[in-house]
Fold this sequence. Notes:
Chain B: It comes from Caldovatus aquaticus. Chain B is α/β, with parallel strands linked by helices. Chain B contains 15 helices and 14 strands.
Amino acid sequence: MGTLGFDLLALQLFAGVALGAIYVLLAIGLSLIFGMLTVVNFAHGAFFMFGAYAGVFLAARGASFWASLIAVPLIVGAFGLLVERFLIRPLYGRGIDYPLLLTFGLAYMMVEGIRIAFGTLGLPFDTPESLQGATDIGIGFFPTYRLFVIGATAAILLGLWLFLERTRYGLIIRAGARDPQIVRVLGVDVSRVWLLVFGLGTGIAGLAGLLAAPLQGVSPEMGGPVLAEAFVVTVVGGMGSLLGAVVAGLLVGVTVALTSLFVPEMAKVSIFALMAVVLLVRPQGLFGRPGLLS
Amino acid sequence: MTATTRRRALAAAAAGAALAASPFRINVLRAQEGPIRVGFPVPLTGPYATEAQNQVRAAEVAIAEFNESGGLNGRRAELLPRDDRLNPGEAATRTLELIERERVNFIVGSLSASVQLAVNNVTKARRVIFNSISQSDAINEASDWSPYTFHEALNPHMTAGAVGRYVFSRFGKRVVFLTADYAYGHEMVRGFQRAGAPLGIQVLADIRHPIGQTDFSTLLPRIQALRPDLLIAINFGRDQQITMRQATDFGLKRSMKIVAPVLLYSARVAAGPQAFEGVVGGTSYYWRLEDTVPSAKAFNDKFRRMHNGAVPTDYGALGYGGVRTLLEACRLAGSTDTDKVIEAMRSLRYDYYKGPQYYRRCDHQSVQSVLIVESKSRDMKDENDVFNIVHIEEPNEANLRTCAELGHAG
Amino acid sequence: MAHATTAEPAAPRAALSGALERHRVLAAAAFLAVFPLVAPFEALAVNILIHGLYALGFNLMFGYLGLLSFGHAALFGGGAYLCGIAIVHFGAPWWVAIPAGIAGAVAIAAIVGALAVRTRGIYFSMVTLALAQCFYYIFYQASDWTGGENGLRGVDLKAIALGPATLDFLDPRTRYYVVAAFVVLALWLLSRILASPFGAVIEAVRENEARARACGYDVTRTRLLAFVLSGAFCGLAGALNALHLSIVPIESMAIETSGLAVMMCLLGGMGTFFGPFVGAAVFLLLESIVSVWTVHWQLVVGAVFVLCVLFFPRGIWGSILHWAAGGGR
């Protein structure tokens, strides 16, 4: 290692936080559906990939990146609504394994469908022109687009928080997650709430895919690693806790950054080691409620 | 269970019973009559599907050519492609199917080091010739090699050596390696270090990342801080595309030259011109070789005619070379008898698609040229024109590891 | 969860299924004896045997104890590697190598189990997943012993000496029957375990943990013991896989291999004796046959999963048992 200057360490930590923001982004959609519906969405990575391809499709038809930021979550979310209505809904009350298996099969179909439509080779995805290049952040230069992604993640989180905490619908959703029976007794159509949550979660997954496309390009397999990473973040943070997902995402990002500096070949296993340690010390995750899903 | 599969199963059972009764006679029957069957396990699905399909297409060109020119005294050749899913276990199963059920004469194929070593382990125990068309150093070494093993592709040592000799003298001697942490990556690093030692290179860091990493942002600031002349990014496929893209985003190209030892046509197409702009690397074949090499022109034209004007990729061309050498060796031997074909392969001096080649006697490694290419975003003849060939290192046995070093007797 | 195995026979057609259940090992042996005649090719038939055994071992945790492990690849892969290492690095004969594989898997199961059995539900799945990833990494890095990413090559077992006779292990038919013999032995053992008092305790713990505890059973110990037993079966499957393919790919320890057991088990019918085997057979046959027709075989495989979940939630074998017992679909 030799010389490890302060600037490099600071930049490294910043890179870790920036990466953490991306992990948070990947995890929110999964965490939301997991926490509210106790559905383990194994097709989360496929929805993510679907979002990136929706962006490619729109860009090829002249849509700007900014228009896609609005359109892609709507397209992917609408597809999510259909999936919930016709595939997931019949499975409620049958335990956690069946939606898991179903979404596993669905992910296979989505990936193969994309291969048929767009080919097996990946596609390039250019960074929007106004966000190209690097910005001086005081300790060094950092790609402007990554700074934008941090901002976008914060905006999505804030919007989601306001929606869940400050609106009537949010109240119903939170209540439905705790005790669907009571909510039903109160005359609320729970199935519509669940439909909405699933659409919201998949829409955010699609948006994450679009935001990730300029970072890594687009390929049918791009959702694979995302699923594992999103799971780690969700579980470490505690299922169903948005605050947990944020803290865990940043924690995972910083862990990867520090591992990358000292033993880079361990970067991938380090996040699983972190998950094992957290779960063994605190089985419900950092911010999870004990007893949920056990 | 359908009627056809049942019939097939019964036929297989009958064949199995006959084989048990008289293995020798059946073996002769299989070897000397009927079509020449070439098993071809490649990853037809998954991240390298496009590349694998190109390999199949190129192999079809070799088969068609052989059949149109009369086959082996009228015996035609046929190709049996199988999906190995880039998984060594699946590849071994498929190879067993090809040998035990389809009774193929030869196996050609593979697109990764671990898959080719798995296939090789199965073929050598059953004394079936295997011509590998993807890169590995281990397959040349005595512990994995067998007399039935041929290696038509380049290996990491040859590739890294040629690329190293080209870049170290032109772009500088202060080097950082960013290496995918597996045998292929380590073999490449060793090749660069061997080529660089006499030139006095200085390795500032060898950073190893796990295979399948999707974000390199936590590695790039450190590389930037080391201020090397050269960043040699030794990874493959999607790892490589993401590295190039993110290195571009972090502005690394402003202060250093980026080198990708294996620079593939399909990777460049998938990632786009921006990410690979100015990246230098090595390859076994690039279609623009047709400007200077007549056999490349002939091969490309045949490929274009059979496949709607498409051009063969680098690994695709290896599919052609791997199948054609075997079929030509059958002609030379006048039979498909394994021992005779091996002898004929060893005596081949061939120029089928990229200039002169031959198999070294001790390890059956194809001695061949290495192309150094540079990715471009301007002056493109058409959408397939993505590289400039900046240098060709001619075939030279001295650039291979010695037979003694690999553990071979002679 | 499917309880079709314990359902009272309610129709004449139940007589057959009842007989099948009573003599299940015999029935399995008879089926496996003729199976290679109908399988597309022997190597695939052997794969089905091995993965069936693997899913069976996994089912002990998932189907019988209700704990969903996402880390069984560590047990399958551990068995494969230890068996392979015994042969490649120590020149061990098969009758040492196979027990070595089982012992390796049991050791890994003891470590993973000791840490994981305290957790419940989805957290159990995640702890086993994380620990299995750590084992993957250890085996990946120990490339002097395991071959790393290149895989372990040279697990060459050419012949099996049995007293005066020698079996040619390279002959596909012989290889099948050798592996089948081990699988039948494992089926018999598992059948005995499930019929033993310990099997009853397992069932009691799954049905009502609190009551089992109140009855004086040590729930944590039961779980650990079941995990280790599961490891022994999966380890045997891994060891046989190493001998069958003559290599051990690092993929045998990967997440996908853990997922495979879950899928096969659910597809066939969890908690039923033969379900995992049926699931393995259907999954691998489907994959193998469809992949020769079309490169888009994943679309077909995915659709089969979706349809199975929607219309045959008991799994294939579970649905057959349910139908035989007089139930509807």
